[in-house]
Amino acid sequence: MTPKQIVTELDRYIVGQFNAFDRGLAIALRNRYRRSQLSPADREEITPKNIIMKGPTGVGKTEIARRLAKLVKAPFLKVEATKYTEVGYVGRDVESMIRDLVEVSIRLVKDERYKEVESRAYGIAVERVADALLKKGTDLPEGINKSTLKDEIAKHNLDQMTVEIQVADIPKPVELQAGGGEINLGSIFGDMLPKKTKKRVVTVAEALKLFASEESEKLIDLDSVESEALRRAENDGVIFIDEMDKIAGKSSGRNGPDVSREGVQRDILPIVEGCTVSTKYGNIKTDYILFIASGAFHVSKVSDLIPELQGRFPVLVELDSLGVEDFVKILTVPANAITDQYKKLLAVDNIDLGFTDDGIRAIAEVAFEQNNTLEDIGARRLQSIMEHIVEDISYDVETEGECRKVVIDRKYVEGNFTTESRNLKKYVL
To answer: Among 39, 91, 122, 123, which has the minimal tally of Cβ within 10 Å of its Cβ?
Structure first.
């Protein structure tokens, strides 16, 4: 995708940040593709221009990360900086984010390979289900043979019929955690132990899914999957580190080492700078992984990060607070607009919920006012306000009855937000 195409896609869901983050991120992602088209010698010299973004809560930072996970085909991982501790202390060490990225890449490549063998795996699954149904004791119409039975299964005409099948008995893995590292005993000893099976009585539809999954695993080359996954994570991986401001600032020194702040920064530095991390699939270099850090930076500043780490995030993007017009767009423009969500929810109870233009603007004005007088929580304020507005409507429903029309206009909104009801803190999670 070109930068403009990426921005266009993001603007379907993100409002108010086009001139800030959207453009910078789109260029950064496009540069990954540009680098891949260069000669191996040139690729070695070009490293990602990591991004750090500063902006109040609720302006779209996390939403951008969530949408990117669906948008880009490259391995994408979102982590929170506050979840890590310095190496040597109890908790997750920062190298685990690289291992998590590899796991994401493995799943991504596996899904692609599964789609390539999907038709073959399904054909084998139909064959196995037919064999199971033809076994003695299965209730089938008289005179049916295997060929016609397979046709009926493939057409999903027998989905609700039950069948007894043999499936692999996969023991639940035991997870041990020590110093932030996770050891999966199941994955270590699984291949050494004999494969066990167990009998299950399931529907034909479920049996098809189970068998298709088993056959897909057999048809794909796991070694090639791991190799490709490591390559993608290494060259195309994107790690989004949220809540970076929470680990900024210097320790006072009065309570011992600050293992969750400066210590984490020191550990993040070599990973962002470029190092080699060991995973269960092999070693991975972090030199060409794109890192995007984010935080509100209300109390602390970007400059409170250790200088060496600041230097590894050369692109600083400041996101703007949202105004009334932005709130209006958030309520109406995105494909998953909040107003549309509530319309669909209440339609389940035969309530036809509608919003007038002046009603939408009134909601936006209340949100802006609340953010200025209480605390600026960005677009999250709209969720609080909308929940307050539809509370009575959501509660007063009939299980049966004709469709009821409810219109939210300015008068309705202002009636719900009198002077006494303006404080919405109880609705903020």
So the answer is: 39
